[in-house]
TrEMBL record:
It comes from Clostridium gelidum. PANTHER family: ALPHA-AMYLASE FAMILY MEMBER, OLIGO-1,6-GLUCOSIDASE 1. This is Alpha-glucosidase. The keyword Oxidoreductase does not apply. Belongs to the glycosyl hydrolase 13 family. Keywords: Glycosidase, Hydrolase. Pfam families: Alpha-amylase, SusG_C. It comes from the Bacteria. The keyword Magnesium does not apply.
Length: 548
């Protein structure tokens, strides 16, 4: 078993625009993050994944970058960034930068040049095609609605944009593009960052003419080259965002030979509450058995040959307590249960800002209060297709990305203590009930529960390295599993419903000692574990020592 620091770490994602505003302009900023490092240290995390802070016209909140080596004015300066790295370092917190290199902004100097003429030396940095029969080269669509091709009047060609038309795709076939990207990565590595989260990295090997987007034939060649020319041998954490990975592909990315990445994000579990073959907006209820199957397949599939990331949330996803928990009567219990389930698994856990407080989805009445380009474009498209306003809003309430982007709820003062000005997006009205200040001093809070889970991980190698096994496979209410490392075993039991449920072991587990490491209810530590009457959303994590 190869040990590395990132297997033992917990990562916390900061979405800077919504985290903490230090200068009273309604927008979170880098100084605001530095101010909150002690809060993060208190929680016990080791790494911050920082969503993009680079120069950007903000068509897609920073995922449209116009200068990779400069900082967005809204967020501060390069000095602020260096200060954040320094202050993070002092506290043993590393910073992962978000690497967005499938595309740039159309305001990046490369694209401004490329657009000037077909002969421009930057033209081939992007993907240009002639019209076919006076129309788009093919029917590829953008993730943000409509065609993925945008016509450029002046040159009479189309350019490719798999996201908004202000996010033209880079041409990774071009060796110069690759080497400019590697130079930029080394610029950040030299500043002392802890690694990279790689935005939609699976798309860089695309062949648009054959409509191959994810997992193109040269993808792994490029990643190996990137590894060699930048972070390889430097002991950094690298995590690739991949929506189309199978376990076999994941093994290639995260193979312990270190030739590619530390790990990937895979989204199989995240897709389970959408209708198959349809869009994320087309909802269907989650079946617990599907979730058990999906997560367990990845746990066992990568055992010994790769490494999992563990997450429920990020800036693109709805809040987990609203999605698969119960954000009303059992908000606290279900948030803790979901945390137990995830943090007991094998892999590196990621916490998205506010998840540690049990922050919930939001329901703004007016569409004007929504800011996300994806939701706004979808609204227009579905309205034209005849969906009703109410139907579309229900989809946005369940799946819209702004659910995760409302400001961090720090305290019960106006705007949840996020800003002294009007925030760029409205605060979730439940901030008086749900905020960090009230949770820090409450030993039963969700915050303190996450803190304890992180401590348990640090103190128990079985949490990091133990082998996973699903138990009670067919039980539709309880998600339970064990993790085994030498003579230690972890037993994790989670009631996924708002009803009582009986946990009954099929086969007795032999053990010498038993310790209840954590539970979200008061539980009798001496209660036998063979059968347990679980209360709504009850979860327990036991450590057992077993005979060798
Ligand atoms: C994935 C990012 O997480 C998302 O926020 C962004 O819109 C797209 N990639 C495009 O960069």
């Amino acid at each position: 078993m190869k040990k590395t620091w990132w297997k033992e770490s917990v990562v916390y994602q900061v979405y800077p625009r919504s985290f903490n505003d230090s200068n009273g302009d309604g927008i979170g900023d880098i100084k605001g993050i530095t101010e909150k490092l002690d809060y993060l240290k208190e929680l016990g995390i080791d790494v911050i994944w920082l969503s993009p802070v680079y120069k950007s016209p903000n068509d897609d909140n920073g995922y449209d970058i116009s200068d990779y080596e400069d900082i967005m004015d809204d967020f501060g300066t390069m000095e602020d960034m260096e200060e954040l790295l320094k202050e993070g370092n002092k506290r043993g917190i590393k910073i992962l930068m978000d690497l967005v290199v499938n595309h740039t902004s159309d305001e990046h100097k490369w694209f401004i040049e490329a657009k000037k003429s077909k002969e421009n030396q930057y033209r081939d940095y992007y993907v240009w095609r002639d019209p076919v029969n006076g129309r788009e080269p093919n029917d590829l669509t953008s993730a943000f609605s409509g065609s993925a091709w945008e016509y450029d009047e002046e040159s009479g060609q189309y350019y490719l944009h798999l996201f908004s038309k202000k996010q033209p795709d880079l041409n990774w076939e071009n060796e110069e593009v690759r080497s400019r990207v590697y130079d930029m990565m080394n610029f950040w590595i030299d500043k002392g960052i802890g690694g990279f989260r790689m935005d939609v990295i699976e798309l860089i090997g695309k062949i648009p003419d054959e409509k191959i987007m994810s997992n193109g034939p040269k993808l792994h060649e490029y990643i190996k080259e990137m590894n060699k020319k930048t972070f390889g041998g430097k002991d950094l954490l690298t995590v690739g965002e991949t929506w189309g990975s199978t376990i076999e592909i994941a093994k290639q990315y995260s193979n312990p030979d270190d030739s590619e990445l530390s790990m990937i994000f895979q989204f199989e579990h995240i897709l389970l509450d959408q209708q198959p073959g349809k869009e994320k907006w087309d909802l269907k209820p989650l079946e617990l058995l599907d979730l058990k199957k999906a997560l367990s397949r990845w746990q066992t599939g990568l055992e010994g040959t790769g490494w999992n990331s563990l997450f429920w949330n990020n800036h693109d996803l709805p809040r987990i307590v609203s999605r698969w928990g119960n954000d009303k009567e059992y908000r606290v219990e279900s948030a803790k249960m979901l945390a137990t389930l995830l943090h007991g698994m094998k892999g590196t856990p990621y916490i998205y800002q506010g998840e540690e407080l049990g922050m919930t989805n939001v329901r703004f009445e007016s569409l004007d209060d929504y800011k996300d380009i994806e939701s706004l474009n979808m609204y227009k498209e579905r309205k034209e297709k005849g969906y009703t306003h109410e139907e579309i809003m229900e989809s946005i309430y369940s799946k819209g990305r702004d659910n995760a982007r409302t400001p961090m709820q720090w305290n019960e003062s106006e705007n949840a203590g996020f800003t002294s000005a009007e925030p760029w997006i409205k605060v979730n009205p439940n901030y008086k009930e749900i905020n960090a200040e009230s949770q820090l001093n409450d030993e039963n809070s969700i915050f303190n529960y996450y803190k304890k889970l992180i401590k348990i991980r640090k103190a128990n190698p079985v949490v990091v390295h133990g082998e996973y096994k699903l138990i009670l496979e067919e039980n539709k209410e309880i998600f339970a599993y064990t993790r085994t490392l030498e003579n230690e075993k972890l037993l994790v039991v989670c009631n996924f419903t708002e009803n009582k449920a009986k946990f009954a072991l099929k086969e007795q587990i032999e053990f010498k000692t038993k310790e209840l490491l954590i539970s979200n209810y008061d539980a009798d530590v001496n209660e036998p574990i063979g059968t347990i009457d679980l209360r709504p959303y009850e979860s327990r994590m036991y450590k057992l020592t077993v005979h060798c």
